[in-house]
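Collaborator request, handled under Task 6.
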Amino acid sequence: MVVTVISGKIIHQEMRWNLLSEMMTSEDGCFYNLADCDVVIVNEIGSAKARIFESKNIIIARTGETDLMAAFLKYLKCMPEFMLI
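Structure tokens returned to the collaborator:
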């Protein structure tokens, strides 16, 4: 799920195919479908994949939550005010 937030409000959301779990054909292979994201919320991520995102200045937010919207809302609730667009 990719969500666009402006001033703490969801203005758009869409579902995208999860390439993280299926594609690692090049260094940026798993990055392709999330290139426009500032934050990636994950249950699990390997260190190599995490380094790719971090090299692109994408924040990795780890969660134990398995419900997509619940994980997002928890992240948004904890997000510092200065990070809101």
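The cover message to the collaborator said: "The CA atoms of residues 7 and 83 lie 9 Å apart. Strands lie at 2-6, 9-14, 39-42, 59-62. Please let us know whether this matches your experimental observations."
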